[in-house]
Amino acid sequence: MPRTIQQLLDTAEIIDTTTAYATAVDTRDWDLLGTLFADDAVWEYLAGGERHTGRTAILARIRPSIERLDATQHINTNHQVTFDGDAAFHSCYYLAQHIRRGAPGGDTFLAAGSYEDRLSRTDTGWQLTSRVLRSTWSDGNIAVFQP
Description:
With 147 residues, this protein is an alpha+beta fold. It is built from three helices and six strands; from the N terminus they run H-H-E-E-H-E-E-E-E. It has a domain at 5-70 and 81-94 and 114-135: Nuclear Transport Factor 2, Chain: A (Roll), CATH 3.10.450.50. It has a six-stranded mixed β-sheet. The longest helix is centred in the first third of the chain and has 23 residues, at 5-27. The model has no long low-confidence stretch (mean pLDDT 96).
């Protein structure tokens, strides 16, 4: 079924919202990252068995693990968006490079997988109500994340 012009505009906005997640993490823009999530959003990292609920808890999980690194680069591809009224489902692949110079065992950790997102339309645009991270593979030194 052909998409409506509004669905095409919403798709672009949803992809912008989910890409802003990568930009916020990589630039350490925690204010921007916070605006992307609904107050009661859920963030899950399946490989780590983690589930965090609420914008504050999500930021408290992501921020310290990223701030100890020297650099990150998150790349998103293969976006898919479907709609159910003012709700949407988005999925994409990610490739995430993490660098901490001088880490015992090596400076880099590369991870790949997919994001599975649920979003809601708000007065200010689309917000994530759920983000699930599914790890597909990784390579390198996971110890770059250790304090």
